[in-house]
Amino acid sequence: MAVVETINLRKVYMLGKVPVEALRGVNLKVEEGEFLSVLGPSGSGKSTLLNLIGALDKPTDGKVFVDGVDVSTLNENELASLRRKIGFVFQFFNLIPRFTALENVELPMAIASVGKGERRRRAAELLETVGLADRMNHKPTELSGGEQQRVAIARALTNNPRFLLMDEPTGNIDSKNAMEIMRLVKRLNEEKGVTIIMVTHDQRLAKETRRTVHMLDGLIVDETVNKP
Fold first, then answer.
1. What is the pTM assigned to this prediction?
2. What stretches of 73-144 show up as alpha helix (H) in DSSP?
3. Checking CA distances to 69, which of 111, 140, 175, 176 falls within 20 to 30 Å?
């Protein structure tokens, strides 16, 4: 069974009185343990696709299945539970400035009512996993862009998600840090078996993933299987 599957997925936004088709019938299947990149220019619909997979928005038509469950059949409480199975990493790090790296990673577990000792242990372990064992007591303003994104990735892993959704995760950092982030993400996929769907407009980064689907004008127009 696929971790994620979309069937004839459509999304129409209203720009004033003018309908704009962001997605025009997207069919996609992502298997467990895959590292998939969704490549396309701005306006191709790739971020809209990610938002629908992550249950952050609702489709105009078509279906999204997560672990075989039709997301459209879920109520608000069930949707909230589903989102806890997904790790989100965005272009902007969305860290809380007054919190240390450790406290930022702890936050989702605090919301999930995990005990203080356990969440601190888990947060420290995750920061070590992403190479920040010596930076966990630093606040975001004391960290580089690449380090802040590593904190965001550690935070996304706190609740042992079924998969990670990454929306332009290197778009706000320089090229050197971008490749370091990609090496980290590949390691999480290869060594930890984390399923990853990454949206990007950078072909160089897309080639680092196992498979790439190419989007244009709200459709998947091509697919490339990259070297493992």
1. 0.90
2. 76-83, 101-111, 116-129
3. 111
